């Protein structure tokens, strides 16, 4: 009988142990934000913590540091039904002070289940802005006319940590990269809100945002000239029939000129033309890749 009793007790203990092993955790589906900056003033200024309850319970959530010390209680005995629980931590302790940079973990306690667990998901506080260096910006003079010549400006940069690069033109943000990388490029085609900007000189700056939401200082301003056809002067006075020169800048292979019913094709550079034979005011038009520039030509009678 003693042997039978021992065997029965062993079987019961084994069954209990197996039952405990197979019992599902009362919380599941945890999702914890891995890094944030309490000082960024952005959407990442708080860390989101969420998990699901299998049964209704009274929930407490605390934040513990690397020494397993509770530094903040973000939820205390609040009743939740089964399903999702969402809380947020602002990176501060119970006294309202921002905690030091480092890793912390959420600790969850369920009163009804008498269950406490420290989630394995670390939360890092990072309040240090990234540092970004502009390596190159080329070309400095460009014309986004689609001819394949100097259509866009390429910025190359590197940072001291993975970042999303940002481009500012005349102080306004135009681009934000999608992925975090230590080295990358930003390409600008001279557009803002899908609209090509007018020809002029612009200033461009880069900045960086890290994974915590911190934004670093902008790089030095770089002047960029958007132009299609540029003329050395827009007012020319010349004697009838005399030759005159005009500097023409463009990245097109050829530029079309027209004045007084005459026209021709020339490469960019110094344009040599003969003035009309009659006196008067004429318009000299230079066209490249569908864009034009004009100069007023005042033709005078020869001095006799």
Give a quick set of tags describing it.
mainly beta, 1 helix, Immunoglobulin-like, single chain, 6-stranded mixed beta sheet, 7% helix, 7-stranded mixed beta sheet, 3 domains, 304 residues
Descriptive report:
The protein has 3 domains: 28-125, Immunoglobulin-like (Sandwich); 132-226, Immunoglobulin-like, CATH 2.60.40.10; 230-300, Sandwich (Immunoglobulin-like). The protein contains 1 helix and 26 strands. The chain has one helix at residues 2-22, and strands at 27-32, 35-36, 47-53, 57-64, 70-80, 83-89, 102-110, 115-118, 123-125, 132-138, 141-142, 153-169, 172-176, 181-188, 191-192, 195-196, 200-210, 222-226, 230-231, 235-239, 243-249, 255-259, 262-266, 269-274, 280-288, 291-300. The strands form 6 sheets. Strands 10, 11, 12, 13, 14, 17 and 18 form a 7-stranded mixed beta sheet that branches. Strands 2, 4, 5, 7, 8 and 9 form a 6-stranded mixed beta sheet that branches. The radius of gyration is 35 Å and the shape is rod-shaped. The termini are far apart. Residues 2-21 have low confidence and may be disordered.
Mean pLDDT: 92
CATH top level class name of the largest domain: Mainly Beta
Task: Could you tell me the CATH topology label of the largest domain.
Answer: Immunoglobulin-like
For the termini, the CA-CA separation is 144 Å
Largest sheet: 7 strands, mixed
The name of the CATH architecture of the largest domain is Sandwich
* Assembly classification: single chain
Which stretches of 5+ consecutive residues score pLDDT under 50? 2-21
Number of helices: 1
Domains counted in the coordinates: how many? 3
Query: Given the helix and strand composition, which structural class is it?
Result: mainly beta
- The 3D shape can be described as rod-shaped
State the helical fraction. Answer: under 10%
Give the amount of beta strand, in percent.
over 45%
Number of strands: 26
Which sequence of SSEs, written as H and E, runs from N to C?
A: HEEEEEEEEEEEEEEEEEEEEEEEEEE
How large is the radius of gyration? Answer: 35 Å
